[in-house]
Design goal:
Layout lengths: L2 H13 L1 H9 L1 H5 L6 H9 L2 H6 L4 H10 L4 H9 L1
Helix pairs in contact: 1-2, 1-6
Amino acid sequence: MSTYALNKLLREVNRNPQIRERFFKDPAEIVAGFDLSDDEREAVLRKDVSALYKLGVHGLILRPFTLLQQMSEPDYLTAIRS
């Protein structure tokens, strides 16, 4: 598992407008540039918040990532608690 790379990827999407734009156009292109396990890769590509949390994404990185997708606070909390 490469939790560091997973957190770094989502942090880049959150903070770098160029990476974010490319990610929302072609997430597979951005994901390919990071050393992720198959499970991590699939969770990012599906934007599976529950799986991302279980894989070790820190809440201070995950919540901004979900805000970019306009996920409500109740939906976010449900996802990380499931």
